[in-house]
Design brief:
The structure is a single chain. The chain is mainly α. It is 61% helix and 0% strand. The relative contact order is 0.09.
């Protein structure tokens, strides 16, 4: 994702965490690549879209932070 947006991985991580010091250009570029609209003319449509994104993010976060039950194989 970072390579596709033309930004470093640490910068992408900062965007994901909501770091307010990230440049707007980087945020716009990443949002465009992901297909996430930043502006909507219709307030109701924006509210609906935000609710949908929040539901999806809640599912992603929940799954991303689940502890792994398996053993780690470091033999490579």
């Amino acid at each position: 994702m970072a390579a596709r947006a033309g930004v470093s991985r640490p910068l992408l991580s900062r965007v994901e965490k909501g770091d307010m010091t990230v440049s707007l250009g980087a945020v716009f570029e990443i949002a465009t690549i992901l297909g996430v609209p930043i502006f909507e003319e219709d307030d109701e449509r924006l509210t609906t879209r935000l609710a949908t994104e929040r539901r999806a993010n809640a599912l992603l976060r929940q799954r991303a932070f689940q502890a792994s039950r398996g053993t780690i194989d470091n033999d490579f």
